[in-house]
Amino acid sequence: MSKPAAQQSAFKQLFTEMLTQGGDFSKVNKDLKRPLKTYVKESYPFFLVTDGYFFVQAYFTKEAVAEFRSKFNNVNITDLHDRVIVLNSWSLEIRKVNSAETFTSYGNLEIRLIVNSFKPNLNERLNPTRYPINLFRDDELKTQIQQFRWNAINAAAGKAKSEIPDLARVQTASKGKVEGIVKIGSSKGDDFAEFSFKEGTTATLSLKDIFVQEKGKDASPAKDTTAVPKVKGGAKGKGKAAQKSAEKKAAGVSKSAEKVLKYTPSKSVAKKETPQKGAAGKQSAKKSVGGKKATPAMPSPGGKKSIKTTDQMSMNQFKKYLDWHEAKKGGKTIGKRSTTGKASTASGKASKRSKK
Fold first, then answer.
1. Separation between Cα atoms, residue 273 and residue 344, nearest integer Å
2. pTM for the structure as a whole
3. Which of 7, 205, 289, 347 has the highest CB neighbour count under 10 A?
4. Domains (ranges, CATH) in the chain?
């Protein structure tokens, strides 16, 4: 039967014991203070070590870095990614931090792993069978931190009992403001500050300082995720060639728009007109844009394509139109006209009546 994660994970067992002992590392079981063999998950911009289950952030003292350089001057601390290191001397301490800025913390509390002495095992490689997660995102450890905070609040409230007013004498103001609320120490709202543990003060070197010592100020870290990207743009950021190219494109667009706006088809284009007075038997169609004569078309009543309509044509003009159309069609009939090109008697009588 496999052991629970709390016993399998060395980090989880250590950090839980630290919280149980009220944040006092001196009270932690001595059997747990043995050297730790860890796998380096990340070496820059954060030095993250894991026991195969969870990862925490390691903080190096100035003495630990100096000892490492004296013994392993050909190895950089910031290049230990995917390597195995042994923590010979280390300690734990609790710091009050802002959890919105420090991801290896919870409830504005961080348990720091302080490394005083360590060495690399360059000939040993590990293949983790699972992906380690942030220990401060483990539900059981978060519950332990909440319990730690609750105990601290109870202790602070117990010390302030003499300052608590008699509830029977608490007066309520007219504006709904309750008087007599007790404030514990320097706490502000949910930001409780009256912890009874002794906060750690061990000085450590930042990974950025270690990187500069190892590779110099001019070296650019390959994995510096803290760097803020710079955006360059505007007229100053563009060269003369880029400006000319932009102006050329703008000019081309304006010319195309000008051509589209100037192109307005004339009303006379592709228009057909019927022969008028004085043009009997002759074709009086207008020329098209290309110089060719447009073929006249029959006017349709109410049509919008022709300016002249049948309502404006007299009977004399209509007869001329019929003669023109007959000559155009080669003697074919339209309406009640005979095949010989002569109008029928009925149509002739109708035309005489219309004249009268």
1. 27
2. 0.56
3. 205
4. 1-225 (2.40.200.10), 271-286+297-356 (no CATH)
CA distance 59 to 199: 16
Alpha-carbon distances of 274 from 32, 277, 281, 330, 356, rounded to whole Å: 112, 10, 11, 18, 25
Q: What b-and-e string marks burial along 277-306, b requiring 16 or more CB atoms within 10 Å of the CB?
A: eeeeeeeeeeeeeeeeebebeebeeeeeeb
As a whole number of angstroms, the distance between CA 273 and CA 296 comes to: 6
Question: CA-CA distances (angstroms) from residue 239 to 41, 168, 231, 243?
Answer: 44, 78, 16, 6
Helix axes 10-20, 139-159, angle to 10 degrees: 10
**Cβ within 8 Å of residue 326, ≥6 positions away:** 332, 334, 337, 341
Nearest to 50, CA basis, from 149, 127, 108, 153: 127
The radius of gyration computed from the CA coordinates of the chain, to the nearest angstrom, equals 49
If we measure between CA atoms, which residue out of 139, 130, 140 comes closest to residue 41? 130
Contact 85, 56 (CB under 8 A): no
DSSP string, 184-205: -TT-BTTB-----S-------B
Q: How far apart are CA 283 and CA 188, in angstroms?
A: 101
Q: What is the DSSP string of 308-348?
A: S-GGG--HHHHHHHHHHHHHHHTS---TT--TTSPPPHHHH
